[in-house]
Every structure is written in structure tokens, then in C-alpha cells.
From TrEMBL:
One of its GO terms (biological process) is 3-phenylpropionate catabolic process. Signal peptide: none annotated. Homotetramer. Gene3D superfamilies: LigB-like. The keyword Disulfide bond does not apply. It comes from Mycobacterium ostraviense. InterPro entries: DHPP/DHXA_dioxygenase, Xdiol_dOase_suB. Keywords: Aromatic hydrocarbons catabolism, Dioxygenase, Iron, Oxidoreductase. Belongs to the LigB/MhpB extradiol dioxygenase family. Residues 1-297 form the Extradiol ring-cleavage dioxygenase class III enzyme subunit B domain. This is 2,3-dihydroxyphenylpropionate/2,3-dihydroxicinnamic acid 1,2-dioxygenase.
Length: 306
């Protein structure tokens, strides 16, 4: 599922929020019926837990703490450390480089789906797996598929009902600082992880709200959403043709989907993990162009075919 800080902020029209929340509610029913004993979530970070000082492609949290950005949960998550360690070893054993963190900070990209699907971020044991989707350089998409496959093969060894979540995407270009455009304060933030004061966090929220209003009004230099590209991606994952995405270059993804479209990496990993159980079938298929959320909002639920 997609995420957006604007789901928790004032500004988006009520009919849009009602539509998105109705789809999330159907996903919540799917999750409730499955009643998972463990959650594994592939998610990006928005320079709240990972910084250019050291930027891994993938990292698994042995312990994790929500930072509380954009009104999301602040505090420790229930991470089963032993299983997370076993997962890291299994992924490394499958020739996929995986960093580990004994003190991972996660933001709304991880916490929001947990809150939306379960009511609270701590209602289920969760293993957070970070996938870099913003900081360049980025590895090829096929490595995300390899990561998901390795994780899925490990999860198959557990005698547990496991829910796998991919959080992010689809086409969107929010105002995120980069090494090329960030000023001195921004560089301290995205390189060294300089903590934000409460005033700075409030200013960032206000800036995001203003950016969304301008984008929705068509008065913005942010890259437009690309529904055709979104639908092509969704068709590929719905059909289980994940290998087709190996041909998508990083520059193609950014050109077509925008500066943050590489969050589809979390979807690729999640579906690759599911595909280790055989052919799957997507059930809930939701898509909404949501400029008021500065993103194309997508949700898919899927399970192995009978």
C-alpha cells in the first residue's frame, strides 16, 4: 500500500480521504481475516532513520523505534529479535547484502501502514526491513526482487502466519531534499542526521501541506503523477510477472514516476516474497490519483492461489 504524511494532516478534501480510507478498511478486513502472527514490512525512509553518512541498500531492524513524524506513533515496535537475526543470516546466505540495525529509527513509511491496518503500530510482532528508495546511487530493481525472494524463502521455514507489507509508491515527486539542492541545514539533516526541533518539524509539516495545495491546484513545479505508468506497474505485479521489472532502469523509473517512485521497490520485494509460495492472486485492487496527497495511492491485497 502507498503511504502519505498528508493522511494525518489537515488539508486533503473529505471525499478523497473517505475514498482512500474505505479502501484501507477493506485491506484491514483482509488482514483481520488472516490474523497474522508476524508482520514483515518492507519500507523506505525519508531521512528520519537513514542518512548519507552511511546509506545501506537494505537493512533489517533487530530493534526499532518510531520517530513520530506527521502524527505517527512514537516509541518502540515489537520486534522479535531472534527471528530478525535469523532472517538477516538467511538473506546473507542467499547472496543478498543485508545490513542490520540494533537501533533502527523508522518513520511514517513504516508506522502508518501498521496503524492503518491494525489500529496501533504495536499490536503485532513486526520485522522492519528498510529499502533505500531515495538516496542515490540506487542498485538495480532486480536486487529488490532477490531480497524479497530470500526473505520469502526464510519465512517459509517458520510455522507462522506471516503478513508481508510493501509500503510506498506509486508515481510521486514530493519536495524531498537531495545532495544537489539541500542548503547547509538540509545537508546536516540528510547527511549527518541532525535532529529536528519541534519548531522545524512543524515548519516541515506546514511546507508539505502548502506544497500539496499548490500541486492539487496545478500551480507547482513538482512532476505530475503518471497514471499510465502506475497502471503498467500494477499490471505486472498483479500478473506475477516480476521478472519484467528487471528491465526497468533507475533512470526510467525516475523519469516516468518521479523522484520518489523508486518506493515501488518495497512492492517488488513484498510480491517477490509472496511468490516463493507459488502463484498468487490479487484480490483488492485500488488505485487513486491523489494530488492532494502528492501521490498516486495504490493498495493491493494478495494471497497464494488455491
Amino acid at each position: 500500500m502507498s503511504h502519505s504524511p498528508l493522511l494525518n494532516l489537515p488539508g486533503p478534501p473529505r471525499d478523497l480521504l473517505d475514498d482512500v480510507n474505505a479502501a484501507i478498511g477493506r485491506a484491514r478486513e483482509f488482514v483481520g481475516e488472516y490474523d497474522p502472527e508476524l508482520v514483515v514490512i518492507f519500507s523506505p525512509d525519508h531521512y528520519n532513520g537513514f542518512f548519507y553518512k552511511v546509506m545501506p541498500s537494505f537493512c533489517i531492524g533487530l530493534h526499532a523505534n518510531g520517530v513520530g513524524d506527521y502524527g505517527s506513533y512514537a516509541g518502540p515496535l515489537d520486534v522479535p529479535e531472534q527471528i530478525a537475526q535469523q532472517c538477516a543470516r538467511a538473506v546473507l546466505g542467499a547472496d543478498v547484502d543485508m545490513a542490520v540495525s540494533a537501533s533502527m529509527d523508522v518513520d511514517h513509511g513504516t508506522v502508518q501502514p501498521l496503524e492503518k491496518l491494525f489500529g496501533t503500530a504495536t499490536s503485532r510482532p513486526v520485522i522492519p526491513i528498510f529499502i533505500n528508495a531515495i538516496a542515490t546511487p540506487l542498485g538495480p530493481l532486480r536486487r529488490c526482487r532477490a531480497l524479497g525472494t530470500a526473505v520469502g524463502e526464510f519465512l517459509a521455514t517458520l510455522d507462522k502466519r506471516v503478513l508481508v507489507i510493501g509500503s510506498g509508491g506509486l508515481s510521486h515527486s514530493p519536495p524531498v531534499p537531495t545532495l544537489d539542492n539541500a542548503g547547509p541545514a538540509g545537508l546536516e539533516r540528510i547527511v549527518h542526521g541532525q535532529p529536528m526541533s519541534s519548531e522545524q518539524r512543524q515548519a516541515r509539516q506546514t511546507a508539505v501541506i502548502d506544497a500539496a495545495k499548490s500541486f492539487a491546484a496545478g500551480d507547482s513545479n513538482l512532476q505530475p503523477l503518471n497514471p499510465a505508468w502506475d497502471q503498467r506497474f500494477l499490471e505486472i505485479v498483479d500478473g506475477g510477472h516480476l521478472e519484467d521489472l528487471d528491465q526497468w532502469s533507475n533512470s526510467f523509473v525516475m523519469h516516468e514516476g518521479g523522484s520518489s517512485a523508486h518506493e515501488i521497490r518495497t512492492w517488488i520485494a513484498a510480491f517477490a516474497a509472496l511468490a516463493t509460495a507459488g502463484q498468487y492472486r490479487t484480490t483488492l485492487r485500488y488505485y487513486k490519483q491523489a494530488p492532494d496527497l502528492i501521490t498516486a495511492f495504490g493498495i493491493r491485497t494478495a494471497a497464494p492461489s488455491p
